[in-house]
Amino acid sequence: MVVITFFGHADFVEKDIFRIQIIENIRALAGNEKVEFYLGGYGNFDLFALKCCRDYKNQYKNCKINLIVPYLTGLTNEKVNADYYDEIIYPALEDVYPRFAICKRNEWMVDKADVIITYLNRHYGGTYSTIKYAYSHHKPVINLYSGKYEL
Question: Is-above-0.85 flag for pTM?
């Protein structure tokens, strides 16, 4: 099984080229194995990644789309439709101060992932912190941003 997770900016603007890149990367990473997707459900990139995962699932049934929530209260984002996910997972974060729950949830997702697909184009913010964490833990990262960006 291959676990793929996604992180990107809330103000991401979707383009067809990114959809093609995500689907091609998923195909290459999955091979003939089962795929599990871990998604956060916040912001434009997460919603775009969900669309791509659903497109992939329509072609290849051997996958599961999971929403990873940072709070016990579950769905706190009105843009999230639970029906689009196969499972909602809450990592054990009860002892985490609520202000840091999303960061800790993201770290949990990185720890569980085999590979991360991101759209990262700046040196600050939650996506930057999460990808920096991923690199420090030697996780493979595919950045869809085509500019010259280095951590």
Answer: yes
